[in-house]
Structure formats: C-alpha cells, structure tokens
Design goal:
By secondary structure, the protein is mostly helical. It has one domain. It is built from three helices and no strands. Helix 1 runs antiparallel to helix 2.
C-alpha cells in the first residue's frame, strides 16, 4: 500500500497518543473519583482501544496485507 498512507496513519496515531497523554495528565491532577471513573469509561478506554487498533492497522499496512494480490487481479479481469 502507499507509503504516504502509512505515514498519515502514523501521524494520526501520534495525535491520538498526545490526546491520551494530555487526558491522563489532567486526570492525575484531579481528586474527583467520579470524574476519573466516568472519563475512563467514556474516553480513556476508547482512546486506548483506538491506539491499539491504529497500531494493528499500521502493522498490517506496513506488512502489505492490504496490497492487491495478483491472483485476485486476474480473477477480477476474468469476470469482466
């Protein structure tokens, strides 16, 4: 797949990581347990999941899993 796409995904991941770290820092400075719990359920856990999914996607793109398979290309041409 296109190297620029992988670079774009890495930039998105970096932005998500930055958001996660900012949120974590803010939550460390609060003593409101309800806010911390709500934040984890509604935001932090989703950011963690998004970061994990983004990492998997980047690895898949880098490994070429989404590159077109030549056999598939031949099958598509045969159907035309």
């Amino acid at each position: 797949m296109d190297r620029q796409f992988a670079q774009y995904l890495n930039e998105m991941k970096a932005e998500l990581q930055e958001l996660y770290e900012e949120l974590d820092s803010e939550l460390r400075n609060t003593e409101n347990e309800d806010l911390i719990d709500e934040s984890y359920r509604n935001v932090t856990s989703k950011l963690e999941s998004a970061l994990s999914d983004m990492e998997s996607l980047i690895n898949d793109v880098d490994s070429g899993i989404y590159d077109r398979d030549t056999d598939l290309d031949g099958m598509l041409e045969a159907e035309d």
